[in-house]
Amino acid sequence: MNLSQLPGYRTGGTVHIIINTQIGFTTTAAEARSSRYPTDVAKMVRAPIFHVNGDQPEDAVRVIRHAFAYREQFKRDVVVDLFCY
């Protein structure tokens, strides 16, 4: 994601899908990731983040379609946070 906005490294956007199982919330802070949320890395490139419940497959498909439409229209990265177990 760091290279996504640099001239010469552009790909026209990427759809990043995070399968968020909330495992990070069951570990201690020292053993967990470097930020509180798995989508925090997307904030540094100002990519939109769609959060969707993975237990609702119709909603997940709808959000994925929106993410691909965003990428096609704006040629920028987009993140889908699929919250599930």
Percentage of helical residues? 25-40%
Q: How many DSSP E strands?
A: 3
Biggest β-sheet strands, sense, barrel: 3 strands, parallel
Could you tell me the mean pLDDT? Answer: 84
Radius of gyration: 14 Å
Describe the 3D structure.
The protein has 85 residues and is of the alpha/beta class. The protein has a three-stranded parallel beta sheet with strand order 1-3-2, covered by helices on one side. The chain contains two helices and three strands. The protein has helices spanning 40-43, 57-74, and strands at 15-20, 49-53, 78-83.
In short:
The chain is α/β, with parallel strands linked by helices and 85 residues long. It has helices at 40-43, 57-74; strands at 15-20, 49-53, 78-83.
